[in-house]
Amino acid sequence: MVNNHPILTVILWLILAPFLGGLLVGIERKISARMQARVGPPVAQPFYDVLKLMRKENLVVRKSQNFYIQFFLAFIIFTAVLFFSGENILLVIFSLTLAEIFLVLGAYKASSPYSFLGAERELIQMASYEPAYIISGIGMYMAAKSFYIRDIVSFNRPLALYLPGVLFAFIFIMAMKFRKSPFDLSTSAHAHQELVKGVTTEFSGRTLALIEIAHWYDIVITLGFVYLFFAGNIKIAVAAAISAYLLIILIDNTFARLRWQAALKSCWFTALVFGAANLIVLFYILG
Amino acid sequence: MSYLKKSPWIIHYNGSSCNGCDLEVLACLTPVYDIERLGVLNTGNPKHADIYLVTGTVNTQNKEVVRNIYEQMPCPKVVVAVGICATSGGIFADCYNVSAGVDEVIPVDIYVPGCAARPELIIDGIKDAVILLEEKEKLAAGGVK
Predict the structure, then answer these.
(1) Is there a contact between B3 and A48 if contact means CB atoms under 8 Å apart?
(2) How far is the alpha carbon of A257 from chain B, nearest alpha carbon, in Å?
(3) Percentage of residues in chain A with pLDDT exceeding 70?
(4) Model confidence over A250-278: pLDDT tens digits?
(5) Sign (positive or negative) of CA dihedral A117, A119, A125, A127
(6) ipTM of this predicted complex?
(7) Are B74 and A205 an interchain contact pair (Cβ–Cβ within 8 Å)?
(8) Taking the domains of chain A in order of start, what are their residue ranges?
């Protein structure tokens, strides 16, 4: 991830990340279809979808709604730059949060009841997963003695040994980031009615394509966090990120959607009980 | 190359249908026919859709809804009338409150007859709709020959 040519690596990752994310979504759709005894779409289907959306008419309620989505994508890309250049992990988390805020603002701007509901649920989701992110950042600092991702990556032992509770809390909220059951409250990764589509309801054409590309970056960054937990060994780390993704697909296909109260409570419970307990134990062990 | 062909997303609206055609539309999504293998998604959201499937008769109560959904869809878009009630009003055509087909309310491109329309025929209709989507895009781009 970080080597002798940091700028080159970052540019390479910026180009590679959406392709990787799109491919992961394609594989997910194939695996999900197989789990439901269907053939499923081709693996490249997400790319076809986005290229099609680029050619569609862009219906707009208010012009500024698309403006906010451009900021959403810009800040997701900025987050990716920070992440892949090995910058401060807290900065990555805050930048990611800011990007999501632009999505929420865009949804509010569209002023449709479905969009409003989606925006409110997105805020609740952010409140739900934010503690797990922060605790992950703090946990990595306590173990690796640095907030910088380049130091966390070069830490010689897998962080998961120090942070099993934090890792559990992080994997718990991953379904929310991937917009999958049981936590697909604000919008779902799958095709749905307006109420479930939430934040993306009022977006069409090119803007919807931008949201989809931002989602691909988001997937790669989130899996990058799982990678960091096992960063000592590249093979194990990649295997861990892939198995975390497969786990989320399995959960998506076996669970129903939860109410937002249950989502908020369960996410905070895992983050504050398993995550925080892990940090307290780590504090006393490492002295 | 046009990618419209590879990812047609549909929205399905049920007029005052007997649910026969609706179930056949849903049957297209089940493992037996699995229309998603062709990239088709049942979006249920007009702003994300390319193909508009209407089943059942259109009457005085729901014709505004049918028109509203049609107008919310981004271009290029194709309307497919599924089942005999949607194509011509069927046995209800003479009723005082029923339109003799969806085409009295919105322009219909593809007609899929049948009572109920077979899933194979619906898939065939979507296939034709996809070709028409491409043609409509060419027309919109000013490439009329």
Answers:
(1) yes
(2) 18
(3) 98
(4) 999 998 888 889 999 999 999 999 999 99
(5) negative
(6) 0.89
(7) yes
(8) 6-286
